[in-house]
Amino acid sequence: MTDGRELKLGVLAWNQYTDWESLEAIGRRVDELGYDSLWTWDHLYPIVGDAEGPIFEGWLTLAAWAQATRKVTLGLMVGANTFRNPALVAKMATTLDHISGGRAVLGIGGAWFETEHIAYGINFGSGFGERLNWLDEAAMVMRGMLDGSTPSGRRFYAAKSVRNDPPPVQGRLPILIGGGGERKTLATVARYADAWNVGGDVERVKHKDAVLRDWCAQTGRDQSEIERTLQAGSVVLRDDPAEARRVATEIGRAHRGWRGPEWVGTPEQLADRLAPYLDIGFRHIYFDSQAPWDIETLERIIGEVRPALRDHLLAAAR
Predict the structure, then answer these.
(1) Which domains does the chain have, with CATH numbers?
(2) pLDDT digits (tens, 9 = 90+) for 57-91
(3) pTM for this prediction
(4) CA separation for the pair 31, 166 (Å, rounded)
(5) What is the spatial distance between Cα 33 and Cα 9, in angstroms, rounded to a whole number?
(6) From CA 89, how far away is CA 177, in angstroms rounded?
């Protein structure tokens, strides 16, 4: 039976346009507030607003947060598969799992931001199709290493019977794959992922979920083994609409050209907006947060939105 305890909430703290002290502190605050998960980006240039600005590297951010936090799970939302050899990524995720005492999630995706690839000299491939082929083989290598086998690459990666010693702290370190591509990405999710991330309106998410279920049926995977995570975007919660818009504008201004969080409203309105996603099986919802950090919104999500969503789940279970 579904109950409110199944609900998980997370925060994706942007690692762009901030200083390190603030980024470390927001990770600690998210943990103290009682969120379940803490994420950041895997980008080398800012992806919102002006790309010619500051950003911190994602994996090292997670490692530092692992020392500053106690309860939240930690992951990239999501890692850029093009940036690193997948065997190395499995080793990095395992090391993070030990640093954090078993709280690592290996988030991975095909990558999309060509600007940073050109600037850093990283191979961007011929297009999404090729990068998603890379992702599928990478996920196979990473899953095998995390599970204790000694996988080898097939077409794209040269790993040879690669070991992962010591193993992760967790019995099964989860792989989360982001994206909604129906021909390739969701097939990779069905084969290798423990969690899947997607965003969009309810009808889009419902459709993508149905496609994933079809892929699971084709591959012989129990679809219930895959946790659904929802990208809820950037929100500002205030009782006064004018104050909410003022805060959103201030946040947007700090990111040079961004208009600011796309949704403003009250906690009640946000809970109503998210409830339909719970009804189609999404139980892990995360919110973007960016400098200057809107602590009031983060507090009200936990203090007001979470209880309302839990009440919705309990009512649906009766």
Answers:
(1) 4-317 (3.20.20.30)
(2) 999 999 999 999 999 999 999 999 999 999 999 99
(3) 0.96
(4) 27
(5) 11
(6) 14
Distance between CA atoms of 101 and 170, rounded to whole angstroms? 9
Nearest to 14 by CA among 256, 190, 239: 256
The answer to whether residues 238 and 246 touch, using CB atoms and an 8 Å cutoff, is no
User: So what's the pLDDT on residue 1?
Assistant: 35
If you search the block for the tokens 């950003």, which residue do you land on? 55
> Contact 311/4 with Cβ under 8 angstroms?
yes
The single-letter DSSP state of residue 104 is B
Closest by Cα among 152, 43, 158 to 107: 43
CA distance linking residue 288 with residue 234, whole number of Å:
5
In the chain, DSSP finds a helix count (H) and a strand count (E) of: 11, 10
State residue 151's pLDDT score: 97
User: Do 17 and 53 meet the contact criterion of CB atoms below 8 Å apart?
Assistant: yes
Query: Which residue in the block uniquely carries the two structure tokens 């950090």?
Result: 293
Q: Work out the number of other CB atoms within 10 angstroms of the CB of residue 318.
A: 6
